[in-house]
Hints:
Helix content is 12%, strand content 52%. By secondary structure, the chain is mainly β. It has one domain (2-159): Immunoglobulin-like. The radius of gyration is 20 Å and the shape is globular. The two termini are 34 Å apart.
Amino acid sequence: MKQIFLIVLVIFAYSCKTQQNAMQTVKIANNIELNAKKVYSQGEKIIISLKNTTSEAVSILRPMEKFIYKKEGEQWKRVNVMYCPCDASCPPPPEKQELNQNSNLKIIWDQKEDSCSKERINGVRKTIEKQVDTGIYRLEINYETSAGKRERYYYEFEIK
């Protein structure tokens, strides 16, 4: 009897963990579907997919920049994720990306926080990447509807 109970307990615990790591779909307003996991392992790439589910175009604002925040107590602290390496002369990121019907945009983050070293080699500072700690994070998604209304959505996830 104890063995059966133990087997059932192990199966239940495994199914709960599997559900946490499963992809989930969230409807943002009436026009964008977000697909992502709720829990990621430390070091695992965070992949969040956005899809326009309507026939009207939707604009994702500042699509190449990542606005990621870590929860610290009751406050959210911005994680520094740079679009361009330190002192590089990159073109400015696009202000908008149109998502037409059924088109997708993937947002990928390697769980690294960026900073610039103080030392310069040939006038250029090195970009320093550091693995973020475990905890609760959120991604800010800014978008504009075809009617010109600007909206903001936060997707929360955990890094364990």
